[in-house]
Amino acid sequence: MSSPSRVYVARLVGLPIFDPQGDQVGKVRDLVVAMRSEASQPRVLGLVSEVFGRRRIFVPMTRVTNVDAGQVYTTGLLNMRRFEQRSTETLVVGQLFDRQVTIPGGPGGPGGGGTITGTIYDVAMEQGRTRDWVLSRVAVQEPAKALRRRGQTHVVEWRDVHGLTRPGGDTQGATALLHALNEMRPADAATMIHDLPPERRAAVVAALDDERLADVLEEMPEEDQVEILEHLDSERAADVLEEMSADDAADLIADLPPETAEILLDLMEPEEAEDVRRLMSYVENTAGAMMTPEPVVLGTDATVADALARVRNPDLTPALAALVYVCRPPLETPTGRLVGVAHIQRLLREPPSTLVAGALDESMENLRPEATIDQVAAHLATYNLVCAPVVDENGHLLGAVTVDDLLDHMLPANWRDRALSEGGRRG
Asked: What CATH number matches the domain at 297-410, 3.10.580.10, 3.90.950.10, 3.40.47.10, 3.60.20.10?
């Protein structure tokens, strides 16, 4: 194995994993070690790799042929069954990072007069003479003092740190793990949080900001969504729901006990709660129930330049950004009469000063809110669309159904949970 003599785990997480042909097969998400004692360096058993479909598998270190600053190489023989942590195993990122530990010896290091207390923010692994990888060093950060923004850091030998082998419990925060989670896409972060031990999950959820937690919740199985929301205080739960898209918030609130749902709706901002209540008033699995009430709506005097500026909003999904809707005032749903829709692909071919109203798609029909899920699917397929307007009997725009909304409702109710749990025990 040709690899650096020492590798820090925080730099390893997120690296691509390649097979011998140079094809990427996954990404590093964690490191699995066997803890023995505080005096004995833990042996690295393998990597937790995220592969296609967000499944996590175990890659034994015996299958790793090279580790460097930019990638990890393995043999082509990987067991694709889902990783399940054994009771004798410890996850470095999930269970060691942010753990509170002490370093006897004070500022002068081991043998000095004092004791340093801090949290783990990184761990180094090295390959020994037996070719086994072990955890060799621990990077610890002291709490910030006085006007310092960050506390002093220390990198010491594994044997010189106390508190490494006890359960994390309330001695483990979430700072380092939060940094890793914030670098991931929401779907990837949801998978990692799903796999955390309950105490660790609670600490991470408490530390995430409302917007990021909302993004992650939208990607989690319904059971996880409900469990996390029910453990938040009501004020924060309402704040998180406000940050979610209205259709996802409506689906989640519908899974809560009615009395809890009403409390949270009352605590939400009136405008946000109104959108959610409106979506909840439609029959389940209809266009009205699955639509997004905040498409890109423009007035009849809007230019192509105006439309392109609106769809540059990074918060818009690609599907929502594919169409703009020209309406009479008011321009918030339910709007005035819908004049028509324009495809962004068409607008890209028009001069910026041209009116959007002059480039409308005259051939497309609209969906009614009572349209069934099969009718919505047929409509999108017929017109080769990734989103479509939903209007009432008077032609007012109520919202837009996107292809991702449709898939969320067409797949089995527990599809996210099945994607996380499919597969068996690793060999």
From this structure: 3.10.580.10
